Amino acid sequence: MKASTGKKNELLVLTIIMVLTFALMTILDPGQFLRSCNLQGMAFQLPELGVLSIAMMVVMLTGGINLSVIATANIAGIVTALILTAPADAVSGPSGFIILLALLAGLAAAVAVGALNGALVAYIGVTPILATLGSMILVNGLTIVITKGYVISGFPDAIRFIGNGTIAGIPFPLIIFAVLAALTALILNRTPTGFNIYMYGSNETATLFSGGNNRRIIMRTYLISGLLSGFAALIMISRFNSAKAGYGSSYLLVTILAAVLGGVSSEGGFGRISGLILALVTLQIISSGLNLLRVSSFMTIAIWGFTMILVMVVNYYIDQRRERLLHAAS
Amino acid sequence: MKRFLKTHEFYVLTVILILSAAITIINPNFFTLENGLDLLKSYSFMGVLAIGILFVLISGGIDISFAATATIAEYIMAVVSIQMGGNMFTAILIASLVGITLGAFNGFLIAKYRIPPIITTIATMNFYYGILTVVTGGKWIYALPDWFRSFADIRVITLTSKTGTPYGLSVITLFWVIITVAAIFILRYTMLGRGIYATGGDINSAERVGFPVRKLQVFVYAFMGLMAGIAGVIQALLVQTVAPNSIVGKELDVIAAVVLGGASLAGGIGSVGGTLLGVFLIAIVKNGMTLVKIPAVWYDVFIGIVILISVSFSSWQRKKEHQHSNIEIDTAEASS
Q1: Could A301 and B318 be called an inter-chain contact, meaning their C-beta atoms sit closer than 8 Å?
Q2: Taking residues B191-212, what's their average pLDDT?
Q3: How confident is the model at residue B270 (pLDDT cuts 50, 70, 90)?
Q4: CATH for A2-29+49-323, among 1.10.3470, 3.40.50, 3.30.530, 3.30.390?
Q5: Which of A33, A55, A73, A138 has an alpha carbon 20 to 30 Å from B9's alpha carbon atom?
């Protein structure tokens, strides 16, 4: 009972923060912020970061971290882009079959990176930071080798629709994000795998002794994370209408920030998709607001770093207070 | 000797020797004193940073903000030296103070608020870089003072190559040597060093034994900052210009080198000797690729593979050892 009221409180606090930032940005720039094109712009920008954040979150739930999410997304995007722009189809444009193949190949590349991470962490016992740092460097290197640093661009309309189209006025990427978020929430809350992911994050040894297959849990976590990065890649290349090594490298911090702000414990075991979504919307409001106020993008990055520290410090004091209350109660 | 044959350092040394032999066969220019001394000069930057991150890894932490720290220290050092004058001593002092301050801030956040080091330093890295770029406007500094420029050309030992050009042991390498000796001394022969190993091995045990673990944590990050400050000066000496983005991304190479040298992210493990070998290995891979004419785009791929193999290898061994010791305990209990 207590735990569930605690969760509700957390979501309430996040909602209040979100509304406050929205109000603040509206006051700071009343002419621009509330205009529908800005709101729609936000709805188009949020999904790619959102999907990447979910990819980061599932790994953080197990107490790990996935530093390779952005690199994974980049290689998936580049694989897709390469197949789409293969010279044989340059004249007539790629057929539906080729497009499908390209999308699947991109997702497969992302899952492959996830499998590599999973194997390193689960079977060989490498720390998640090092495993994903190594795969990040390796995969980034591969993207540079494949593209030689050039931009791959020029996609068919079907691909451009993924990132820029609307269905009944709702941006298509937002629909993708909603579906992926719902599916991940379903896996986390309603399946044994999800239950085990939370449990592994809380206590590895207890999970093993209560019959959990720790290796399989970790493997699945990194596969899910890889697959989600792949979906983020599809939205990303479609929105930019191009793929390139090193796209979105500043997202790494923001994905961790979104997860931490959304209530994902850095030691693992705690955190909900609903919290993550509220955090993402808040960050998007701040980011769009700062952009409208013509704050330099480097300043925004500095603000993200500062916010992250602030959130962690506040979390520390909340934990301390909770512990004190627990002691007082017992 | 037999024990040495089983150490991680021995494996790294073997790889270095095999690689060196292979590169020398393809391009004899590799195995010359001139190339060696040149590498010792240009890798001083990485070597000094590696010593810093080694301390952090031994204590069980990680720092990826040190490249940002080094850049800020370098920039402030350059601006102050140009506007107010000074000498090599003041330049190093300024960079060191800036480095220690920024590093200690990391240590404070980690020790006081128990924020995981990876999250803390990702945050501060972005914070430091963001502020630096906004304040400097991304401007490069070219007009370094003459005393600063000429210092970089000082050679401790001068030799002459066959073609008549002088070469030798640069004074820059001397920074690296002094810091390495100091690091060995601290880690091996002082209570401070013991404390850092103990903190990384098991922080709770270390605290119960009476080590001031929180202070030790602040120390290692401040020490990392100090190394970053000195590395910033070295970078400016080597390149003779100061750019806000010249060191971006180098942090991964440095961490790679130290991890290759056998330090573990789990803490409590790592040696200065292994770290030196790790830096040498990275230097040889990079230099060798140039000499063997492999395109530079492959560099990250190589480093990524080398890191993954190295960490897999050491994790696998530790896992096997662990299983081994568990079995031994089991049989011991069964027989008693």
Answers
A1: no
A2: 90
A3: confident
A4: 1.10.3470
A5: A138
Residues of chain A contacting residue B72, judged by C-beta atoms under 8 Å apart: none
Residue B319 forms contact with A (CB below 8 Å): yes
- Per DSSP bridges, beta strands A170-171 and A242-243 are unpaired
Read off the tokens for B254: 């440095």
Residue boundaries of the structural domains of chain B = 38-270
| Other beta carbons less than 10 A from residue B172's beta carbon | 23
Q: DSSP alpha helices (H): ranges in chain A?
A: 2-28, 30-33, 36-61, 69-84, 96-119, 128-147, 157-164, 172-190, 192-202, 204-209, 214-240, 251-261, 273-292, 297-329
User: Which pLDDT does position B78 carry in this prediction?
Assistant: 92
Mean pLDDT of chain A: 85
The Cα of A234 is separated from the nearest Cα of chain B by a number of Å equal to: 24
Q: What is the ipTM of this complex?
A: 0.83
Residues of A in contact with B316 (CB under 8 A): 124-125
Contact A190, A98 (CB under 8 A): no
| A91 — pLDDT class (breaks 50, 70, 90) | low
Q: Does A318 touch chain B (CB under 8 A)?
A: no
The answer to whether A283 contacts chain B (CB < 8 Å) is: no
Burial of B134 (0-12, 13-18, 19+ CB in 10 A): middle
pLDDT class of A7 with cuts at 50, 70, 90:
low
CB B69 within 8 A of CB B103: yes
Chain A neighbors of B315, CB-CB under 8 A: 124-127
Please list the alpha-helical segments (H only) found in chain B: 2-5, 8-26, 33-42, 44-58, 66-84, 88-113, 117-136, 146-151, 171-189, 191-201, 203-209, 213-239, 250-260, 272-291, 299-335
DSSP B10-79: HHHHHHHHHHHHHHHHH-TTSSSHHHHHHHHHHTHHHHHHHHHHHHHHHTT-----HHHHHHHHHHHHHH
Cα distances (Å, whole numbers) of residue A306 to A238, B116, B123:
31, 15, 7
> Measuring CA to CA, which residue among B317, B184, B307, B188 is closest to residue B255?
B307
Distance in Å, alpha carbon of B80 to nearest chain A alpha carbon? 24
d(CA B131, CA B74): 15
A positions 74-93 inside 8 Å of B (CB): none
Question: Between A227 and A268, where is the model more confident?
Answer: A227
- Tens digits of residue pLDDT in B274-312: 999 999 998 888 888 888 888 888 888 888 888 888 888
Separation CA B91–CA A63 (nearest Å) = 42
Q: Tell me which range, A65-74, A252-261, A291-300, is most confidently predicted by mean pLDDT.
A: A65-74
pLDDT confidence of residue B326: 55
Indicate the burial class of B13 (C-beta count within 10 angstroms; 0-12, 13-18, 19 or more).
middle
* Residue pair B162/B147 in contact by the 8 Å Cβ criterion: no
Q: DSSP code of B115?
A: -
pLDDT value of residue A223: 95
Shortest CA gap B115–chain A (Å): 6
CB-side neighbour CA atoms (13 Å) of B155: 12
- Residue B170 three-state SS: strand
3-state secondary structure (DSSP) of residue B156 = strand
Entry pTM: 0.86
Alpha-carbon distance of A180 to A159, in angstroms, equals 18
Tokens, residue A278? 């509220």
Give the amino acid at B132. L
Provide, as residue numbers in chain A, all residues whose Cβ is less than 8 Å from the Cβ of B123: 253, 257, 304-306, 308-309, 312
